[in-house]
Amino acid sequence: MSLNLPYDPENIFAKIIRGDMPCTKLFETDEILAFMDVFPQTQGHCLVIHKQATATNLFNISADELFALSTAVQKIAAAVKASLNPDGIRIAQFNGEAAGQTVFHLHFHIIPIYQGNTTKSHGSGGPADTDELEITAQKIRTAL
Ligand code: 5GP
């Protein structure tokens, strides 16, 4: 059952942390990495992960690591709010395949919501244009 999977160091986010896979970075410290989702549900959809915690989901991260991660989520979401001026911001986190989780390295989604615009459903978005992702990322970075 995917809620109890062992951590797989070959998952896509582990590769991004190691630099084996590219990403459009927003923010990075020794502990935290925030980057743009390549299949965004809306403009500005981004992800925040803990770099050292080998946690597949919310149930196998330490309280200290979760504190660092959730503090970073608040910081990045505030920058999304300030830079993109959405009408709302959805923070999402999925545990287990049955709940919709597809990458088994704990992560939080930050999804700005714009009234009147379509919000793609989870897992249904096509790949974003890399240049457009970078333009949006640059706006968010300036608010950090
Ligand atoms: P989950 O379904 O596990 O909650 O979320 C995984 C997220 O990772 C999805 O929103 C998906 O679009 C995103 N994603 C999957 N592969 C990659 C990738 O290679 N790079 C980036 N930046 N995002 C990815």
Key descriptive features of the protein:
29% helix; five-stranded antiparallel β-sheet; alpha+beta; 144 residues; globular; HIT family, subunit A; single chain; binds guanosine-5'-monophosphate
Structure description:
This protein is an alpha+beta fold and about 140 residues long. It has helices at about 10-20, 65-85, 130-140, and strands at about 25-30, 30-35, 45-50, 90, 105-115. It has one domain (about 1-144): HIT family, subunit A (2-Layer Sandwich), CATH 3.30.428. It has a 5-stranded antiparallel sheet. A hairpin with a 3-residue loop joins β1 and β2 (about 30-35). Bound molecules: guanosine-5'-monophosphate (5GP). Guanosine-5'-monophosphate binds near residues 36 and 94.
Compact summary:
The protein has 144 residues and is α+β, with helices and mostly antiparallel strands.
Q: What's the Cα radius of gyration?
A: 14 Å
How many beta-strand elements? 5
**List of distinct ligands in this structure:** guanosine-5'-monophosphate
Biggest sheet, strands in spatial order?
Answer: 1-2-3-5-4
Net shape: globular
Number of domains: 1
Classified in CATH, the superfamily is HIT-like
The ordered string of helix (H) and strand (E) elements is HEEEHEEH
Q: What is the helix content? A: 25-40%
For the largest beta-sheet, the strand count, sense and barrel status come to: 5 strands, antiparallel
CATH fold-level assignment: HIT family, subunit A
Main CATH class: Alpha Beta
Mean pLDDT: 96
Strand content: 15-25%
DSSP helix count? 3
Alpha-beta content class: alpha+beta
